[in-house]
Amino acid sequence: WYSIEYQIIDCKGSFNFRFLFRLIRLIRKERISHIQAHLLGSNVYASLAGLVSGVPVTCTFHGHVDISNTERFKKLKFYFIGKASEHIVAVTEELSFKIRHENSILKGKEVSVIPNGIDTSDLKKIQIRKLPNGQDETIIFGCLGNIREAKNYFLAVDFIKALTDNNVNAKLIIAGDDTKLLAKILKSYINTAGMNSNIDFPGFIHNIKMFFEEIDIFLMTSSSEGHPLSITQAMSSGKPILTTPSGVEKILSGLKSAFISQDHDPEFLMQKFITLRDLPPEMLCHVLDVTRHVVNKKYSLESMTSAYIIGYREK
Length: 315
Description:
Layout: H1 17-29, E1 35-38, H2 40-53, E2 57-61, H3 74-84, E3 85-90, H4 93-102, E4 111-113, E5 139-144, H5 153-165, E6 170-175, H6 181-192, E7 199-203, H7 208-214, E8 217-220, H8 229-236, E9 241-243, H9 249-252, E10 258-260, H10 266-277, H11 281-298, H12 301-314
Parallel strand pairs: 1-2, 2-3, 3-4, 5-6, 5-8, 6-7, 8-9, 9-10
Helix pairs in contact: 1-2, 2-3, 5-10
């Protein structure tokens, strides 16, 4: 772990003045020269603290939930962000566009795009391999992320069932927190569908490399995404990606190792799976290797850190 000193300040409630005052006091005590904030709530607190203390602020937005029209006091929150922030960052081009054009307060303000970076050091060591045949060899699909509504794992279950109904030997691993109510509902759904033997829940995992070594295809059935780290982790691991259209299309644009279904439907996923399965093994391995080099150059921790440092220096 990095030897970085940190402090945790408790923050509860819709707006916590005590937290804000403690944050300002900490900024002054530690002589903070730049504030970096992530997600809407933290961006608002950081902007207010920056205004009071006179310290420049960089605000990073990670997904559409940060700019939802249903957000309470949205105009007021974005007013403070626009007033205080020296630098606004979005993790995708699409999110940057929405921030600039759908928020009148920030309209015309520069919004840089800096993709989330990942640690590629272990993932790029995973051997690229051909797909199992799906007959006497099992094809293992993997989903990575806590079980919540936006992940739409019910569709993933329907897709695996469609495969098995078509005599494809398939298994699915859903890795992530499976302790909440939605996970219980999902497991009941799987039981009713008679798919218990085809789907595993290892829970929250710490060894990402081991997860990607085990799977053959990374499956994403989300209804909405910003820039999920899991998708770039899959790319760095040399795994083909089968996904629904969920906001990741521009991230995957031009990559021949990614297969995006037309809609959120198991039949459309099946069509793209067949396209993937029918690729000659040598061609698949080649495009996976090309993708791995792209992600290691564009989405590594090093490239992300460099982009932020350049932004700090410019401001």
